[in-house]
Amino acid sequence: MLSEATFKGRLGRALGEMERLGLDCLLVFSRSNQLYLTGSNAGACTVVAKGGEVVQIVYLLEAERARLEMRLGEVFVVSGYEVEGQEGVFVGELHEAVRRVVEGLVERGAKVGLEAAVSHATYSKLAEALRGYSLVSADVVSKLRRVKGSEEVELIEGAVRVAEEALRRGLELCEEGVRECEVAAEVEREMRKRGCGVAFETIVASGPRSALPHGYSSLRELERGDLVVLDLGARWQHYCSDTTRTVVVGQPSREQRELLESVLEAQRSAIDAIEPGVKASEVDAVARRVLRGRGLARHFIHSLGHGVGLLVHEAPTLSPKSKDVLEPGMVFTVEPGVYIKGLGGVRIEDMVLVTERGAKLLTALEPIP
Ligand code: ZN
Ligand code: ZN
User: Fold this and answer.
1) Residue range 202-212, pLDDT digits in tens
2) What is the distance in A from the centroid of ligand 1 to the CA of 300?
3) Residues with C-beta atoms within 5 A of ion ligand 1
4) Which residues are registered as beta bridge partners of 100?
5) Separation of 179 CA from ligand 2 center, angstroms?
6) What is the pTM for the complete model shown?
7) How far, in Å, from the CA of 218 to the mean position of ligand 1?
């Protein structure tokens, strides 16, 4: 469990960022950002004021969960209608509750930052409800989440370890006649029984289907000579992992072995290039250069990697157009892949932590099983 000091530190950094942006108040709608700030994702909106006050607005059905989970801040309960015998509940719509909370925290005319994660409809209602305030878009909490603290890294490592055990089991099952969905079910059971959730729906894509980077898990039975891509992640105390291995059913052909080795070389070269101060786009370019040398560049059709934390896809991004610069404490995947129609696909995905000196590989499982 994360310490009290961690939550205080997060709030302090959020307030610092708000001050830098000249914000008096911040409205946080993203569930993962609310979780990051308060310890609970039960809220519909978390309001942070420059004086350090934090109020999580929750619907009545989530009020008790918020009270149990929140490590910081107060709960403001809202309901769309009156419920007999329930006291201390604000009856109205969410935007009206937000206005009530904001009015209690800051003066009229104050500058209110709004994080991007709201629908157009919600935005329109909020803008109307907060007339008299200066409403501006702001990116505060997502920015803080890019760099992980040591407690977060420990939880991520916990998720990685469980996913690895599940992956080992999945790889054992990859035999002729077994269905993709059976492998996926077993892998997810392994994670579940260790107290984890699944960070995303497990991908087991075999044979020609392995050429689909997001090829879910179908009823297809594995055949001798198939390439099989297993991509899975565990969620441990809200923190995610994301790992991929590619295996061949039976003996790999020479061509398959070359594909596996090329992708591994691209991945290891990219990991070697990781260092604080290096551009994420440069790390992506290293992997692309290796694959170009093997005549495979045109089959690498996605980004090299993505940050992992409370969400399985978050900042930073490792892609040709990324503007991110690597910093110690960032955790992300390095996952080159090649996808050849008809023949199949290969992807090798590991998670790394950026340290002062380079990259620490968080996965222990051998890259080519
Ligand atoms: Zn993955
Ligand atoms: Zn990934």
Assistant:
1) 999 999 999 99
2) 15
3) 231, 242, 244, 349
4) none
5) 23
6) 0.96
7) 17
